[in-house]
Write a structure and sequence with these properties.
This protein is mainly beta and 293 residues long. The chain is built from no helices and 20 strands.
């Protein structure tokens, strides 16, 4: 399908993008807003996958993963992150743990970027009782993962509070205690990436959510708050960024509620250019209806 302008996916509703470049192809993984007619609430039970060689022509695949593919989960497919590691593809997700309302983080694995994916652990990677401090059943939302240049891997996540831990070499366990990162206005929707030796931690800021970010020369911090990266997206109270370099240019994926019938519970993924300053800081993203077309 060809989608010129934003949103880039017009049907179905998509949210919470995560993006991977593999062998010259961009793979876009999204949440799936699918509330029944007349309902105005979050209803997300699976994740979707699309690919493109030019960020304009997109191919859709059958859903490669749903929340209940984790037998220990009761449902709810929240924001996620996909990484390639040692020839396999690992999908870190947030779901509702069976037996209650608390959220947990799981990880699925596949030999192919388009799936099928299966539970890589057989149990949750992070549960609520593992957290050092939390006042919310939604604390374990929106995981993001960085595979560093030395092969070590790190997990960031949270709702109302940002958490951080190193992952084991098989990506299915924690290799360090869970730490708390103090970030101004942190709401949720963390995204970690690295460019030219600098670590960037972007996240949903305040409510309705803008996207802000912090920078560091060390994955363990300290983190320097750099301010707003993206303003409030149209007709939508949340946001979750994904940042990727492709063919020598940098791109910022996000979601809004701009499609007909759209809104905070019927969101759609968009993409615009991202630019860096000479000091390594990121310029504020200019959201456009034209997009990359």
């Amino acid at each position: 399908m060809v989608k010129e302008g934003n949103p880039i996916i017009r049907n179905p509703y998509t949210a919470d993008p995560t993006v991977l470049v593999h062998e010259g192809t961009v793979y876009l993984y999204t949440g799936h807003d699918d509330p029944p007619p007349g309902a105005d609430d979050y209803y997300m039970q699976d994740w979707l996958c699309f690919s493109s060689n030019d960020l304009t022509h997109w191919t859709e695949y059958s859903s490669p993963l749903k929340a209940t593919d984790f037998q220990w989960a009761s449902g709810d497919a929240y924001a996620s992150k996909v990484v390639e590691y040692r020839g396999k593809f690992y999908w870190f997700v947030s779901v509702t743990h069976a037996g209650g309302s608390r959220k947990a983080i799981g990880v699925a694995v596949s030999e192919n970027p388009t799936g099928p994916f299966e539970d890589a652990k057989g149990s949750a990677l992070v549960t609520h009782d593992m957290l050092p401090v939390s006042e919310s059943d939604k604390a374990n939302l929106d995981p993001t993962v960085l595979i560093d240049d030395d092969g070590r891997s790190y997990l960031f996540w949270g709702n109302g509070q940002c958490y951080f831990a190193e992952l084991q070499s098989n990506l299915t366990g924690l290799a360090s205690p869970i730490a708390v990162i103090d970030l101004p206005g942190f709401a949720e929707g963390a995204h970690i990436h690295k460019k030219n030796g600098i670590y960037y931690l972007a996240y949903g800021y305040g409510y309705p959510e803008k996207v802000a970010y912090a920078m560091s020369r060390n994955i363990h911090g300290p983190w320097e708050f750099k301010g707003i990266l993206n303003e409030i997206a149209g007709n939508c109270a949340t946001n979750r960024p994904a940042i990727v370099e492709f063919n020598g240019s940098d791109y910022f994926f996000y979601h809004n509620g701009a499609l007909p019938g759209g809104g905070s519970h019927r969101r759609s993924v968009c993409v615009d250019r991202l630019y860096y300053q000479e000091d390594g800081s990121m310029s504020r993203v200019v959201m456009t209806t034209e997009g990359l077309g």
